[in-house]
Specification:
The complex is a heterotrimer of chains A (489), B (529) and C (133). Chain A is mostly helical and 489 residues long. Chain A has a domain of 150 residues. Chain A is built from 18 helices and 2 strands. Chain A has a two-stranded antiparallel ribbon with strand order 1-2. The longest helix of chain A is centred in the middle third of the chain and has 35 residues. Chain B has 529 residues and is mainly α. In chain B, helix 7 packs antiparallel against helix 12 and helix 18 packs antiparallel against helix 19. About 6% of the residues of chain B have low confidence. Chain B has a domain of 240 residues. Chain C has one domain: Helix Hairpins, CATH 1.10.287. Chain C contains 5 helices and no strands. In chain C, helix 3 runs antiparallel to helix 4. Classes of the chains: A mainly alpha (489), B mainly alpha (529), C mainly alpha (133). Chains A and B meet through helix 4, helix 5 and helix 6 of A and helix 18, helix 19 and helix 21 of B.
């Protein structure tokens, strides 16, 4: 593979812009040309993924590049590092799966043009968040991600969707506002050295730093659904399932998690973060979100809402690992970040298939679904086991390293929290599976829509990937290792 | 000839629009000629400002003081070309030229008849000329006269549609604006009594010496001027006239009123406070605190009042009340960053609010609907107009790469400089509230299906499924009634919207020279140089 | 106390101007009759003129005509009076414009009372919306 600096710049720009270009292209295609539109959507999503891969691989190989554009006192710059590469890679890869699933799920639904174009726009925004080289650029794409996903949240055009959209915007803009203030304070302390040259705030000494950190965590915590800032996430579940699956289980919420990790490791740096006592306070916040989220999830009857609260819980796994400030903890966070979305998206995909094929969204009324959709429920079962962290599935490794990290840092209570969370997760999903296979009611067929093959294929593929990576974790380990080396090496 | 113009450029910039405005009614019957003259005058003004900016940039640090008729101060009248003046002139000309373009060919629909269009243009050009004068004038009484010219033109513009509602709004505006003028003129009178000068520089020197002898008179002067200009520029508790006036005017007039006229009075107040009274006196009488507090109250209250408005133009008018608060907040920070941010925000808001009012006006004119709830799906039929509206909204909310973001950035930096955290939080809260009142409009325009289709479907339940079915197959334009041909306005209007949106983007993406100019203006005002 | 009273008596034109101004403001803000509002505006304007002209007056000064024979004469300052001419012009145009608006409103509503006009206008808009609803 050519790794010259110019080629890298081109990969970076193409990876970033293919989503936006695709979105524009889709916008221009007349509404009736469905096949053409689907092809173009897939083409651009694929090109975004390919170029993000190329960029990420070269970053892992130790070759960075930087694109900058000075405007006034600010500079917009792209400068991928391993952490960004991991996020960009996951986001753009999963986008492909979600796109294929969308073809199935959205078939014969209205407003597809808008849907697909904003789906692609948000790809660009997510890749931009990943590869941003400094704080303002991160902020720019973070805001664009909120805006680009707004039309997807309100896609159903119902009053609930509109209300959820408003909630979404309000929460996320408030969070972004906190981030903006924090960024401006950071700039006043340290200027704008970018992320790749070591921690931004290294050597700064001020009593305000603690508050600055709180502001960042609160700001990014909104998107990362850190309790009690998570309320928009269950509300946003009114969106079509592919959106919930990709954006509100992976891309958007990951942008928040990514931002938190970015701030802790690239802005404050390990040393300063340790001095501020991050590893003493924040893991507890994350741990309480882990437990509270999954316990609230237990009480939800609507399947997607249960999944949403479970997302809240699982995002804090990653944060917990990052907050320990231990190499193994960060490695665990990265492994969790890489492996968890495969399972989570499978769960959402299955929930979407059930909703489209039987019209059922409530768990209590899903009796007999397993007999009607055996393969779907099989995939669901596999993913549910993955959520508990069982071995043949890749999520085991995330949890393993997280536990290792917390024990290594002398924080063994968190290992217990993780174990307990695994059990509650089991309590969350196993009854669903049992209910689906045992119930004697035949499900009412209110609505039967969507293309089963196009919906099931991505879900099955994700399960297979999770199995393979679970058995051979060496496939994904280099990503986690690169990030850990970058910040600890 | 060119030498004459170059030597007298400051006067030229003021006189061209004024003169064109006065001459226009002669050609009232020849519509095309009138429009051409207006655009020509605007373009000449813009070119002149460009040249002035060049001069200011090349002779950095020294103001060009132009003496009218060659009489030296304090006897003669002076025009001062400094960074502040050039910055504001730029904003005026760069925004009023697209507005003039927008009126080409469709003003008749807005104001009612052909006869009224020439009058409209006269008032428009008089307003532009007087705004240019306010930027340049270095003389208290001339400022007052220009303010009066602007006020009368504004009232004329408000009432130019000729409806009784407009006449009522214009009368309220006229009464309050004249009250404000009286306050200002009495304030000027006090300054004159104290110092014996009307030239700003000399008055400032006189005040610096005399204020300790007569603190009460100076205090009275400051408060009269503050309340007077505050009333004219709709500073929060004094904003009562604005929503009616700005929403009942024809849309191009709303654009110029909300975008520029209000800003002119703010620049006047800025010059009175910083140039005449000076930063030291401002601190002494805690004017800065008052401005910050009023600004914060305006940001929040204006936005909260905008939320329940269903009439699109009224919502935008209340939004102006809120946005004016940002600028006053920056004026009160008394800090280089904050003041530069306020000036930048002023220019940015001029472009943004004009775009919003013009595109809203185009939509209202085309669809015949004033209410946001009736605008469902209009974005599909008028994509360019709605896109301009959306871009401007995002700019107002403060999304990066749009001009509002840069202004907010420096305002926040300025308020952090002063060590006060509350304004920072208010600025952010204002952005969030701004999103709360603008996003429903954007949603209605782009993502909702027109109400007519809904109503039909409720009448005929059987048709409901059919309509939905049709909608599914034609997501581009579901249920469009054939007889209403709602579409984007003509070429000139499109060009105007594109130009204004381009201004918003340019200010947001390459703010360098503009923020530089604003910062040097701020340094001049704070006497840091 | 004495000095304050003395100051007031000596500077009686300023005092008078302020009283006049207050009367004007009260009239503008409290009266609902449009004509009375307009009168209030003019009263306020007059307060401004008095203030300026009083400021320009010098007790015992002569009219400001250049007497070449007697260069030591004290003149009344002519500038404020000249400025107030401009002020009067402004005031006249404001009055004319306001009157035209009043005529327009009277033709439409048959009254010059602001409150009644507002009430009638609200009724009109209400019936409009009920028609639509």
């Amino acid at each position: 593979m050519p790794y010259s600096a110019d080629a890298l710049k081109i990969y970076l720009v193409l990876g970033l812009s293919s989503g936006a270009a695709g979105g524009l292209a889709v916008m221009l295609i007349p509404g009736a040309r469905r096949r053409l539109r689907n092809m173009i959507t897939l083409l651009f999503a694929a090109s975004g993924a390919v170029f993000s891969w190329l960029t990420a691989l070269s970053v892992f190989a130790g070759k960075g590049t930087r694109i900058g554009f000075v405007s006034g006192d600010l500079e917009w710059s792209l400068d991928p590092d391993p952490l960004g590469a991991v996020f960009g890679l996951i986001a753009s890869t999963l986008w492909m799966f979600a796109t294929v699933y969308s073809f199935g799920y959205m078939a014969e639904k209205s407003g597809q043009r808008v849907y697909y174009s904003f789906f692609l726009f948000s790809l660009s925004a997510a890749v931009g968040v990943a590869f941003a080289g400094n704080l303002v650029t991160l902020y720019l794409f973070y805001e664009l991600l909120t805006l680009a996903t707004y039309p997807l949240v309100i896609h159903e055009r119902t009053p609930e969707a509109a209300a959820a959209g408003t909630k979404y915007i309000m929460y996320n803009l408030s969070g972004a506002g906190a981030i903006l203030i924090a960024i401006i304070i950071t700039y006043r302390y340290a200027g704008d050295p970018g992320f790749t040259g070591g921690p931004v705030l290294a050597g700064v000494n001020s009593p305000m730093l603690g508050w600055l950190l709180v502001m960042y965590i609160v700001g990014f915590g909104v998107k990362a659904a850190l309790m009690p800032l998570h309320r928009w996430l269950p509300a946003a579940m009114v969106a079509p399932t592919p959106v919930s699956a990709l954006l509100h289980a992976v891309a958007v919420v990951y942008a928040g998690v990514f931002g938190v990790i970015r701030v802790v490791y690239s802005v404050f740096g390990r040393g300063l973060a340790g001095q501020l006592g991050i590893s003493r306070v924040l893991p507890w916040v994350a741990a309480s979100t882990i437990l509270a989220g999954v316990i609230v999830a237990l009480r939800q009857d609507v399947l997607k809402r249960r999944l949403a609260y479970q997302t809240v819980s699982h995002l804090s796994y990653i944060l917990l690992g990052a907050f320990t400030l231990q190499p193994w903890g960060l490695a665990g966070a990265m492994m969790q970040m890489i492996t968890y979305p495969f399972m989570k998206m499978t769960l959402f995909f299955c929930a979407g298939i059930i909703a489209r094929q039987t019209g059922e969204t409530r768990i209590s009324r899903m009796g007999g679904v397993g007999r009607k959709l055996p393969w779907t429920m099989a995939a669901f079962t596999a993913a549910a086991l993955g959520m508990t962290g069982m071995l043949p599935l890749s999520t085991f490794w995330g949890k393993y390293y997280l536990m290792k990290g917390s024990v290594a840092g002398g924080m063994w209570p968190f290992a217990l929290v993780l174990a307990a969370s695994g059990l509650i997760n089991a309590a969350c999903f196993i009854p669903v599976v049992v209910q689906a296979f045992r119930g004697d009611k035949t499900p009412s067929c209110k609505e039967k829509g969507g293309s089963m093959a196009l919906m099931f294929a991505p879900a099955a593929a994700l399960v297979v990937i999770a199995l393979v990576t679970g058995l051979v974790p060496g496939i994904v380990w280099p990503g986690a290792e690169a990030v850990t080396d970058w910040f600890f090496g | 000839m060119t030498a004459v113009i170059a030597d007298n450029l400051p006067a030229f910039v003021i006189i061209v629009p004024l003169f064109a405005g006065v001459v226009l009614p002669v050609f009232a019957r020849r519509q095309r000629l009138v429009e051409g003259l207006v655009v020509l005058a605007e373009a000449a003004g813009l070119a002149g400002v460009g040249f002035l900016a060049y001069i200011v940039f090349t002779h950095r640090g020294t103001d060009w003081v132009y003496q009218m008729g060659g009489w030296p101060a304090p006897w003669g009248i002076e025009l001062t070309v400094n960074s502040l003046a050039v910055f504001f002139l730029f904003a005026v000309m760069a925004v009023s030229l697209p507005i003039a373009l927008f009126t080409m060919g469709n003003l008749k629909d807005e104001v009612g008849s052909n006869k009224r269009t020439a009058r409209f243009y006269t008032l428009f050009l008089l307003l532009v000329g007087s705004l240019a004068g306010m930027a340049l004038a270095n003389d208290l009484f001339n400022t007052y006269v220009l303010v009066e010219v602007a006020t009368l033109s504004c009232c004329g513009l408000v009432s130019s549609r000729g409806t009784p509602r407009a006449a009522e709004a214009a009368f309220t505006y006229l009464v309050l604006a004249t009250l404000a003028s009286s306050l200002v003129v009495i304030g000027i009178g006090f300054i004159y009594v104290t110092t014996g000068h009307l030239n700003m520089g000399f008055a400032s020197q006189g005040l610096a010496q005399a204020w300790q002898d007569r603190p009460h008179v100076v205090w009275l002067a400051i408060s009269f001027v503050l309340v007077g200009f505050g009333l004219k520029s709709a500073l929060f508790p004094l904003h009562v006239w604005l929503p009616d006036a700005h929403s009942s005017a024809p849309s191009p007039a709303s654009a110029v009123l909300s975008g520029l006229a209000v800003k002119g009075y703010m620049i006047c107040l800025l010059k009175f406070l910083y140039v005449v009274f000076g930063p030291a006196l401002m601190k002494e009488f805690s004017v800065d605190r008052i401005l910050v507090l009023a600004g914060m109250a305006a940001i929040i209250c204006g936005a909260v009042m905008a939320l329940p408005q269903d009439d699109l133009k009224r919502r935008l008018a209340f939004s102006t009340v809120s946005q004016v608060g940002y600028i006053y907040l920056g004026f009160g920070l008394m800090d280089e960053n904050g003041l530069a941010g306020a000036l930048f925000y002023l220019a940015s808001h001029a472009a943004i609010k004009s775009t919003l009012f013009l595109s809203a006006g185009a939509m209202i004119a085309s669809a015949g609907k004033k209410k946001i709830s009736e605008m469902a799906g209009i974005g599909r039929k008028m994509p360019l107009t709605a896109a301009a509206f959306t871009a401007a909204s995002l700019g107002l909310i403060g999304i990066p790469m749009f001009s509002g973001f840069i202004g907010k950035w420096y305002l926040i930096a300025g308020s952090l400089d002063t060590g006060d955290f509350l304004p920072t939080v208010i600025i952010i809260a204002g952005s969030v509230l701004c999103a709360a009142y603008l996003f429903p409009v954007i949603r209605a325009m782009w993502f909702e299906t027109p109400q007519k289709a809904k109503q039909e479907s409720t009448v005929q339940q059987e048709c409901k499924t059919a309509v939905q079915h049709a909608a599914e197959h034609m997501p581009a334009g579901p249920g469009v009634p054939r007889e209403v041909r709602v579409k984007d306005p003509g070429a000139a209007q499109k060009l105007a919207l594109i130009l204004l949106t381009a201004v918003i983007f340019v200010l947001g993406v390459v703010p360098g020279p503009f923020i530089e100019l604003a910062r040097s203006a701020a340094a001049e005002l704070l006497m840091l140089r | 106390m004495k000095t304050l009273l003395e100051k007031l008596i000596v500077n009686y034109p300023y005092f008078f101007a302020m009283v006049l101004f207050s009367i004007g403001v009260m009239t503008v803000l409290t009266r609902s009759n449009l004509f009375k509002k307009l009168l209030g505006i003019n009263i306020m304007g007059s307060a401004g003129y008095i203030l300026f002209i009083a400021a320009g007056n010098i007790r015992g000064g002569t009219d400001p005509i250049l007497h070449q024979s007697d260069p030591g004469t004290v003149y009344v300052n002519p500038l404020p009076s000249a400025l107030m001419l401009t002020g009067i012009v402004v005031s006249v145009s404001v009055t004319a414009f306001a009157l035209s608006l009043i005529i327009r409103l009277y033709k439409e509503y048959g009254t010059t009372d602001a409150r009644r006009i507002a009430r009638m206008r609200n009724e009109v808009t209400k019936s409009d919306s009920s028609d639509r609803g």
